[in-house]
Amino acid sequence: MGKRRGVSAVNVVFGWLRQQSKIVKIALGVILSLILVVFLRYTVKNHNHFFVASELIHAAGIIILIYKLTRQKTCSGLSLKSQEVTAVFLAVRLICSINMEGDIHTVLDFATLVSTLWVIYMIRFKLKASYVKTLDNCHHYYVLVPSAILAFIIHPSSRYTYINRVMWAFCVYSESVSVLPQLRLMQNAQIIEPFTAHYVFALGVARFLACAHWLIQVFETRGHYLWLIGAGYFWFPMALLAEAVQTFILADFCYYYVKSAMEGQLVLKMPV
Length: 272
Fold this sequence. Notes:
Elements: H1 2-19, H2 22-43, H3 49-72, H4 80-100, H5 104-126, H6 141-153, H7 162-177, H8 180-189, E1 191-192, H9 194-220, H10 235-262, E2 268-269
Antiparallel strand pairs: 1-2
Helix pairs in contact: 2-9, 3-5, 3-9, 4-5, 4-7, 6-7, 7-10, 9-10
């Protein structure tokens, strides 16, 4: 009885949400996100842990893909272009990390890059028969070219070399839109199988944690942190905007993911 009432309550909530306008849904999403950020602000002491948690969750998403590819022997529902864009920004970020930091982030980036390259190899060669190229129609240059141009225009001003600063900015911008080919493929397919949905949801959670870190820094410095990085230029606001853009891009998918999970649906259906 209790389970039925729980499921019924979930259906009522999501039914009410479906009836609301897009503006109301966005407003509710923003309010819920801010509540979660405030909760994290007062429960997590070291806010740098957000970045580590973000990278670990991204790695967990890759592990989900590896399980799918090795156990189910199919890459259906996966965007090769999205994985290749991810490999590009991870490779560039790894180079920057080695030159600029050389810490735990370097190790995590290396492990994630190797795993992503393996996923690309499986899609391109071992499981290419199950790859639907016609659905994966968001080209690389739609993502990489604008990110590169923006990186040359707006990048951090620091003690590191010019090329390192531009490369770091390119990583931030390209990562923020790297999921677009995957979302485009899912929109074309309209039906997403569980493991692909778990992977994209993991990306959404990872990006939210990274975005929460920057928002908390802005809050704690009363807005002054917006100009601490970049010597007064537009770098930090653009980096924050890039994080917010990716979080917003994934928010709609995460809504349908949670809705399907709460209703006990194994296959996620995206709206047309």
